[in-house]
């Protein structure tokens, strides 16, 4: 059955320009790959040499996600989008953690594009997904973060519970070495125009190439969902 992904009407009213790129694929996840690590390290080096902390917020894709948080009533300086978190780690000299190749691929695309990306084990995610504004009663355990306050964050919810925000993915649906099918979200809060769509499609193409090269991706399915 084709996975259903809906955007709540009240969310679309606030963000009529929101666009989500969705990709699913069969994969062979692995612990580490030297070639992929070289690509990640090149990107880390480039960011470390060319940027500073204050400039991160000015990157168009990151700035638009931060503005989305503000519109929902969430402080983006306390709950930073994942793409911003990654760049801040690099510029603070903290480097990046290496968990497995699917995680590394998601991080690399996020660093290169500024989009916050969710990478999930597709077999752990339900068939009916809704994007809505987080509520005070929503329970969410972020990967490596413990229980996270997701009230007023953009929140993906399946039949079981919330499982993703642009700030963190959940422990329940995280990818592991045993993952054989992945589901990936690329979140775009950019204005709807040809330039923004081109940026998103470039990110999708980059992601597909990395998945094919490093985790033997097959049966790739992609689609674009908009408010």
Automatic annotation (TrEMBL):
<dbReference type="InterPro" id="IPR020825">
    <property type="entry name" value="Phe-tRNA_synthase-like_B3/B4"/>
</dbReference>
<protein>
    <submittedName>
        <fullName>B3/B4 domain-containing protein (DNA/RNA-binding domain of Phe-tRNA-synthetase)</fullName>
    </submittedName>
</protein>
<dbReference type="GO" id="GO:0003723">
    <property type="term" value="F:RNA binding"/>
</dbReference>
<dbReference type="InterPro" id="IPR005146">
    <property type="entry name" value="B3/B4_tRNA-bd"/>
</dbReference>
<feature type="domain" description="B3/B4 tRNA-binding">
    <location>
        <begin position="63"/>
        <end position="216"/>
    </location>
</feature>
<dbReference type="Pfam" id="PF03483">
    <property type="entry name" value="B3_4"/>
</dbReference>
<dbReference type="GO" id="GO:0004826">
    <property type="term" value="F:phenylalanine-tRNA ligase activity"/>
</dbReference>
